[in-house]
Design brief:
With about 450 residues, this protein is α/β, with parallel strands linked by helices. It is built from 18 helices and 14 strands. It has a six-stranded parallel beta sheet, with helices on both faces. Helix 9 packs across helix 11. The N and C termini lie far apart (about 65 Å). About 45% of the residues are buried. It binds uridine-5'-diphosphate-xylopyranose.
């Protein structure tokens, strides 16, 4: 099938590369000429496991190409997939500017038959509204269909998720379009869930809001564990053993970040306000997530006595491991708190340096974790990169001014850490001894 994928960001590029790998002819349309030039030379503009390999394979087999001309790509394709960003506006509602700009252009050049697929996360009712708009400017209106087909790709495992997703949601009531989409995804093993466009749009928001709520729930439980002496990991394993709950997304930490959870939860809250539907749970989810970095930074302040003038080393800045993405990273709030209290902050991240550098002008960056920790009054692990599990922690401890560690992702074995001379604290576990003041 011939597919134009509009937008070469995380979602668009992964989708385009995997569909090309499955034998479809894919043109990826991107307005950023510089990005297109780089992609044509095989350079992927962000860190995503296996993506460069799959892009290169698609290009080698002449199944994947890149261009800047949406009109030409639209005329050529059977399916147009819109994968542009819908970031959050100040009022919490999605900023539809990029999406609407694509629709404006489609209005000028769309002739039927075409299927327009919304992969961008858009407010409920968008597919139906845009279908009416595109049809009104087209000579064969009945052959234009707009459907919702949300993505559930996690950064860092997006290629794997595309091949082995838990489900493919196809939101259209049109039988022939359902068949067309099933043919498009025929080589993927994921079960297909067919529903109305409105339900598909809601599934995306509700999925991310539910996952975010699970994370905030366990983070709130972690605070309770700290004051009651329970161990949050034992608790998470115990509740997760109930199949109705499940163990996934019950890992306590610094809170959720990234390009989706915060944005989608805000969009759901805005929708609730618009329709005057009370949804207190989701507001609590946001409040707990906002509090978590400050709560953990206060633990560090307690351990050090004061933050003013202290040298604090940070390991990990990206919103999660295996990505260089700093969007909505909780590390930013955590570090801001330390800087506001007068601490000197130095940081190391295996991949996010160039994105973090411009966001954190007052932070000193290091190119390796040992140099970053040397001489520091305390070390904080904010992103659980695998690399940190393999370091020689004994030599790190000896190189520091004070052996204080705050592990905000429970990356290390707490019992081992407490026995090995660290003043170690983590999330939702009570140490056998309180952290010593520096
Ligand atoms: C998410 C969704 O999982 C995906 O389906 C959607 O389409 C895009 O948004 P992503 O943002 O890549 O994916 O990251 P994800 O792995 O879901 O993690 C999001 C945040 O939650 C990260 O900051 C992560 O550290 C945090 N998290 C995740 C926890 O704190 N605890 C957990 O148990 C799981």
């Amino acid at each position: 099938m011939k597919v134009s994928v509009v937008g070469a960001g995380y979602v668009g590029l992964v989708t385009a590369a995997v569909l090309a790998d499955q034998g479809h002819e894919i043109t990826c349309v991107e307005i950023d000429e510089d990005k297109v030039d780089k992609l044509k030379r095989g350079q992927v503009p962000f860190v995503e496991k296996d993506l460069s390999k799959v892009v290169a394979r698609g290009m080698r087999h002449r199944k994947l190409s890149f261009c800047t001309n949406l009109k030409v790509a639209t005329e050529w394709a059977d399916i147009i997939m819109i994968c542009v960003g819908t970031p959050t506006r100040d009022d919490g509602y999605p900023d539809m500017a990029h999406y609407e700009a694509v629709v404006d252009q489609l209005c000028e050049c769309l002739t039927g038959p075409k299927t327009v697929v919304n992969k961008s996360t858009v407010p409920m009712g968008t597919a139906r509204r845009v279908e009416a708009r595109l049809r009104s400017s087209c000579s064969q209106p009945d052959t234009i269909h707009v459907i919702s087909n949300p993505e559930f790709l996690r950064e860092g495992t997006a290629i794997h998720d595309m091949y082995h997703g838990d489900r493919i949601v196809i939101g259209t009531n049109q039988l022939d379009v359902q068949m067309q989409m099933m043919e498009l995804y025929a080589k993927l093993s994921s079960p297909v869930h067919i529903c109305s466009p409105e339900s598909a749009e809601m599934i995306k928001y509700a999925s991310n809001a539910f996952l975010a709520t699970k994370i905030s729930f366990i983070n709130a439980i972690s605070e309770l564990c700290e004051v009651t002496g329970a161990d949050v990991e034992e608790v998470a394993a115990g509740i997760g053993a109930d199949q109705r709950i499940g163990t996934e997304f019950l890992k306590p930490g610094l809170g959720y970040g990234g390009s989706c959870f915060g944005k989608d939860v805000q969009a759901l809250i805005s929708t609730c306000k618009m329709y005057e539907v009370p949804f207190g749970i989701i507001e609590s989810t946001v409040a707990i997530n906002a509090r978590q970095p400050y709560r953990l930074a206060l633990k560090l302040e307690d351990a050090l006595g004061k933050l003013d003038g202290r040298e604090i080393a940070i390991w990990g800045l990206a919103f999660k491991p295996d990505t260089d993405d700093m969007r909505d990273a909780r590390s930013l709030d955590f570090i801001k708190f330390l800087l506001d209290r007068g601490a000197h902050v130095r940081a190391y991240d295996p991949a996010a340096y160039s994105n973090a550098f411009r966001l954190l002008p007052d932070v000193q960056f290091f190119m390796n974790p040992y140099d970053c920790a040397r001489g520091a009054d305390a070390l904080c692990l904010l992103t659980e990169w695998q690399e940190f599990a393999k370091l020689d922690l004994e030599s790190v401890r000896r190189s520091m001014a004070h052996p204080i560690m705050l592990d905000c992702r429970n990356a290390y074995d707490a019992n081992k850490m407490w026995q090995s001379g660290w003043d170690y604290s983590c999330v939702g576990k009570t140490p056998p001894k309180t952290l010593t003041s520096a």
